[in-house]
Write a structure and sequence with these properties.
heterodimer; A: mainly alpha; Cytochrome Bc1 Complex, Chain C; 11 helices; flat; B: mainly alpha; 15 helices
C-alpha cells in the first residue's frame, strides 16, 4: 500500500480535489502495475510448454530431443508406454514384421470408432434393423461411407490377423519364451472371426440371415450338446434346449438371434477381446519385446536338451 | 577377416516362371466359357478381400522366403568359417562397429506406426468410397438363397461339410485346428530359428504350417469360386446352371469293397469293424509318412537327377533331422502326430476320396460316420 499523499502535490495536473483524489491516483497506479504484470505474464504464454496446464498434461518436456527425453516420451505416455524406450534397430525395418500385428490393432480401433458411430443409427429389432441400414445408406450424412468402412476394415482385419500369424511362424517367434503368447493370439484369431460373424447378421438381409442360418445349423450337430449331434438325443437334447437354441435365443434365426448377435458383437466379444489383447501386448514386453531380427544361431551351437 | 564371397545368381528361373505362368493362364483362359460368370463371382464386393488375399499371400510368402534364403546363406557361410562365426556377422542387416544396436522408439518406431496408420486409413477410405458393402433384400426365411454361402473366411468350414458330417466339419475339425495351432509351439522342439527367417534350419516345422495354411486358403478358394447352386462343383468360368442335376453315385467304401465278393461287409458289425480298420490304416500310414518326412535331409537338385541318389535321400535319415528328433519328447512326438494326421493328413485323404472316387464315408457305425 502506498503512503497517503498530501493533496495537490504540485505536478501541474488538475488533481481531483476531495476525498476521491487519492483513490483515483491509486487506482491509476495500480492499473499501470497490473498492465505491466499482465504483459510480463503474457510473454510467458508465448511458450505454452512452460505453462502449468501444459506441464500437468504432458508431464515431461518434449522440446529437447536428448536420449532422456526420448525415453520419457515413451515411458510417461499411457498410449505409448507399452513400447520399450528402445528397440532392436533392425526391428524397425518393415521387412521383418510386415507391421501386421500393429495394423490389426489399428483396425480394431477403427472398427470400434466406426462401430460406435453406427450404433447411434441402429436398432437391433426385426422391425427396424433393415430400415436403419437403408436410412444409413441414403439419409445419414456419410452413412454409406461409415458402413462401408466398418465392413471393409473388418475384412481387412481378418486378412492382417492371418498374415501376422504367418509372419510369426516364419520367424519362429512363437518359440520359447513366447509359446503362451502364441496361444493368446490363437484365441484372438477366433474372437476376430466371431466378431466378424456376429456382425454379419446385423443388417438383417438375406445375405446375413442365410450365412448365420448355415453357420448355426452346424451347432445342431455338436456332439452331446446338439439335438442332431452324436449322443445328443440320448442326452435329452431337442431343438428347444440345445446349444443352437442357446446361441440364437430360439429355434430359428429371429428377433432374439438379432439381439443376441448385437450384444455379442458390440459388447460381449469386444470386452473379451480387449482383455486378451491387453494380455497379448503385455506378454510381448514381458517375453523380451519383439523377437528379432535375432542373430542367427548355428547347428553347432545347439545346447543339449533340458530334461 | 574372411568375407563371404557372394555367389553369382542366375535369374533365368524367373523367366521360365513367367513363361510357365503365361502358358498355364493362357490354357486356363481358353477353358473359360462364361467370363461374365467369373467376373460376377470375383467382383462381388464381399469376395474382393479373398481376391486381394491371393496375391497378398503370394507376396508375403515370397518376402518371407527371400529373407529366409538370405539368412540361410549366412548360416552356411558361418558354418564353413568358424573365425567369421566369432565376429558380429550374425545378421543379414547391415551393421558397423560404432552403430547403436538399439534405436529410440520415439521417434524411430512411433513415426513408422503413425505412417502405417495413415496409409491404412487412406486405403480404407479409398476402398470404402469405391466399393459398397453388400445389402441384399430383407431377410426372408421362406426364400432360400442358392447357393447360401457363409462369409468368405468361413467358406473353408462350409466346404468341409462336403467331406464330413456336420459334427466333424463344424465342431470337431475346427476345434482340432485351433488346439493344433495352440500346441504348435510346444511340439516344435527345434531351438534354431528363434526370431529370424530361415528355411534351412526349420524346413519341417515351416512346411507343416504352410501345408495347413495353404490347404485352408485353397478350401476357401474352392468355396468361393467353384461352388455354385446346390453347392455343386462349377469350374471357374462355367455358367451357374440352377437346373443342373448331378448323378454322383456317392458310395461308402465298404459298399465298394463288398462288391468285390465280400458281401458280409454290408452287415453290422463287419461294416463298422471294416471302417475302423481302414481309419486305423489311414492313421498308421499318416504317422509313417510324417515320421519319414521329418527325417528327410534337404533335397538337392543333384538328388533328383539320379535314381540312386534319390533312393539314398529317401532311405537314409538326415543327421541334423535325427538330432532334432532326439530332442523331441515322446509326448511332443505323439501330440504332433495326432494333430498332423487328423488335420493335415486325414483331411486331404478324405477330400481326394470324395472328389476323385465319389466315396462318401469310410467308416460307418450306428452312431456316427466318418
Amino acid at each position: 500500500m502506498e503512503p497517503e499523499r498530501p493533496e495537490g502535490d504540485g505536478d501541474g495536473q488538475l488533481v481531483p480535489q476531495g476525498r476521491g483524489a487519492g483513490l483515483v491516483a491509486r487506482a491509476r497506479a495500480q492499473g499501470v502495475a497490473l498492465k505491466e504484470r499482465a504483459e510480463a505474464e503474457a510473454k510467458t504464454y508465448k511458450d505454452p510448454q512452460q505453462t502449468q496446464l501444459w506441464k500437468s498434461i504432458f508431464r515431461v518436456s518434449h522440446d529437447r530431443s536428448d536420449p532422456r527425453n526420448r525415453s520419457l516420451a515413451i515411458l510417461s505416455n499411457v498410449f505409448l508406454h507399452l513400447h520399450p524406450a528402445k528397440v532392436n534397430r533392425d526391428a524397425t525395418r518393415y521387412n521383418f514384421t510386415w507391421g501386421m500385428g500393429g495394423i490389426t490393432f489399428y483396425l480394431f480401433i477403427v472398427l470400434t470408432f466406426t462401430g460406435i458411430l453406427l450404433m447411434f443409427y441402429y436398432h437391433p429389432t426385426k422391425v427396424q434393423a433393415f430400415r436403419d441400414i437403408l436410412y444409413l445408406e441414403h439419409d445419414v450424412p456419410f452413412g454409406k461411407l461409415l458402413r462401408n468402412m466398418h465392413r471393409w476394415a473388418a475384412h481387412l482385419m481378418i486378412i492382417t490377423t492371418w498374415l501376422h500369424m504367418f509372419r510369426v511362424v516364419l520367424t519362429g517367434s512363437y518359440k520359447r519364451p513366447r509359446e503362451f503368447n502364441w496361444c493368446v493370439g490363437v484365441v484372438l484369431l477366433v474372437l476376430t472371426l466371431l466378431l466378424s460373424f456376429t456382425g454379419y447378421l446385423l443388417p438383417d438381409d438375406q445375405l446375413g440371415f442365410w450365412a448365420v442360418t448355415v453357420g448355426t445349423n452346424m451347432a445342431r450337430s455338436t456332439p452331446m450338446l446338439g439335438s442332431e449331434g452324436p449322443f445328443g438325443p440320448q442326452l435329452g437334447m431337442t431343438p428347444f434346449n440345445d446349444v443352437r437354441f442357446g446361441l440364437l435365443g430360439g429355434s430359428i434365426v429371429d428377433s432374439n438371434a438379432l439381439l443376441r448377435s448385437y450384444i455379442w458383437h458390440c459388447i460381449g466379444i469386444p470386452v473379451v477381446a480387449s482383455l486378451f489383447m491387453a494380455v497379448h501386448f503385455w506378454r510381448i514386453r514381458k517375453d523380451g519385446g519383439i523377437s528379432g531380427p535375432a542373430p542367427v544361431m548355428l547347428e553347432s551351437e545347439m545346447k543339449a536338451v533340458r530334461k | 577377416m574372411a568375407m563371404a564371397i557372394p555367389r553369382p545368381r542366375s535369374n533365368r528361373w524367373l523367366l521360365w516362371l513367367v513363361v510357365a505362368a503365361v502358358v498355364v493362364l493362357g490354357a486356363l483362359a481358353l477353358q473359360v466359357d462364361d467370363w461374365g460368370q467369373l467376373w460376377k463371382i470375383s467382383s462381388a464386393p464381399d469376395n474382393i478381400p479373398i481376391v486381394a488375399m491371393i496375391p497378398l499371400v503370394i507376396f508375403f510368402t515370397w518376402l518371407g522366403l527371400r529373407q529366409s534364403k538370405a539368412n540361410d546363406r549366412l548360416v552356411r557361410d558361418l558354418e564353413g568359417d568358424p573365425a567369421l562365426a566369432k565376429t558380429h556377422h550374425r545378421k543379414t542387416q547391415p551393421w558397423r562397429p560404432g552403430w547403436a544396436r538399439e534405436l529410440h522408439v520415439w521417434p524411430y518406431l512411433v513415426r513408422i506406426e503413425f505412417l502405417s496408420a495413415i496409409i491404412v486409413t487412406v486405403i480404407l477410405f479409398v476402398w470404402s468410397i469405391l466399393l459398397n458393402a453388400p445389402l441384399e433384400e430383407p431377410a426372408n426365411p421362406n426364400l432360400t438363397m442358392n447357393p447360401s454361402k457363409a462369409p468368405w473366411y468361413f467358406l473353408g468350414l462350409q466346404e468341409m461339410l462336403v467331406y464330413f458330417d456336420p459334427w466333424i466339419a463344424g465342431v470337431v475339425m475346427p476345434s482340432l485346428l485351433l488346439v493344433g495351432l495352440m500346441v504348435f509351439p510346444y511340439v516344435d522342439s527345434n531351438p534354431l530359428g528363434n526370431g529370424y527367417y530361415t528355411w534351412r534350419q526349420r524346413r519341417f516345422a515351416v512346411s507343416m504350417f504352410l501345408w495347413g495354411f495353404f490347404m485352408w486358403i485353397i478350401l476357401i478358394i474352392i468355396g468361393t469360386f467353384i461352388r455354385g447352386p446346390g453347392w455343386m462343383w462349377f469350374w471357374p468360368g462355367q455358367t451357374w446352371d440352377h437346373n443342373r442335376v448331378v448323378f454322383d453315385r456317392n458310395r461308402d467304401l465298404h459298399e465298394i469293397v463288398a462288391g468285390w465278393g465280400l458281401p458280409f461287409l454290408n452287415l453290422y458289425p463287419w461294416k463298422a469293424i471294416f471302417g475302423a480298420l481302414v481309419v486305423g490304416a489311414v492313421f498308421v500310414t499318416g504317422a509313417l509318412f510324417f515320421h519319414w518326412l521329418m527325417l528327410r535331409r534337404r533335397l538337392e537338385w543333384a538328388d533328383v537327377k539320379s535314381f540312386g541318389r534319390l533312393k539314398g535321400w529317401a532311405t537314409k535319415n538326415g543327421e541334423f533331422e535325427e538330432k532334432l528328433l532326439a530332442r523331441t519328447s515322446i509326448l511332443q512326438y505323439v501330440t504332433f502326430q495326432f494333430f498332423a494326421i487328423a488335420v493335415l493328413w486325414l483331411f486331404p485323404v478324405k477330400l481326394l476320396l470324395r472328389l476323385l472316387f465319389t466315396i462318401k464315408y469310410i467308416w460307418v457305425t450306428p452312431w456316427f460316420n466318418v
